[in-house]
Amino acid sequence: MAQVVLKINGYPYTLGCPDGQEENLQALGAELDKRVNSIKAQVGNLGEARLLVMAGIMLADELSDLRRDGAPAPAAAARPAADEAAAADALIGLARRLEGVATRLAQA
Predict the structure, then answer these.
(1) Tens digits of per-residue pLDDT, 13-55?
(2) What does pTM read for this prediction?
(3) Taking the C-alpha atoms of 45, 47, 50 and 54 in order, what is their torsion angle to the nearest 10 degrees?
(4) Domain residues of the chain, as ranges?
(5) Among the four 8, 58, 60, 81, which has the fewest Cβ within 10 Å?
(6) Beta partners for residue 104, in sequence order
(7) Confidence of residue 73 (pLDDT cuts 50, 70, 90)
(8) Alpha carbon of 19 to those of 3, 25, 33, 95, 103: distances in Å?
């Protein structure tokens, strides 16, 4: 299993992925970073956890719209199932990190 360090909002996040999927994971991380920076430009820095949650919700909303309309996700339509599994694993890893950040913020 390979490890990739993603920079999201200037913070490093180390995630594991299947060998050969490093480039795909980097692209997913770059897209998430782009979304976070866009939100931050619109509403300011709300804190790492909230920015990541907002970006995740926006991506989930777009995916929901695509599924409702019956259209496959544009990039996912051309990828094999292994790529989709790697992307899902990456998102699960980010979600777990977000939960940890949110827990620490709630305890502060």
Answers:
(1) 999 999 999 999 999 999 999 999 999 999 988 888 888 888 9
(2) 0.64
(3) 30
(4) 2-107
(5) 81
(6) none
(7) low
(8) 9, 11, 23, 21, 31
Distance (Å) of CA 66 to CA 5, 41, 51, 76 = 29, 26, 23, 12
**φ/ψ (deg, to 5) at 24:** -60, -45
With CA atoms as reference, report the closest residue to 86 among 29, 8, 9: 29
Q: Token pair of 60, please?
A: 């989930």
32 contacts: CB under 8 Å, gap ≥ 6: 6, 8, 52, 55, 56, 59, 94
Asked whether the beta carbons of 49 and 30 are under 8 A apart, the reply is no
Provide the token pair at 27: 């692209």
User: Which of helix, strand or coil describes residue 82?
Assistant: helix
E strand or H helix that includes residue 88: helix 81-107
- The 10 Å Cβ neighbour count of residue 32 is 21
CA distance 9 to 38: 10
Tokens (6 digits) for 47: 């804190």
Query: Long-range contacts made by residues 2-5, C-beta under 8 angstroms, separation at least 24?
Result: 4/29
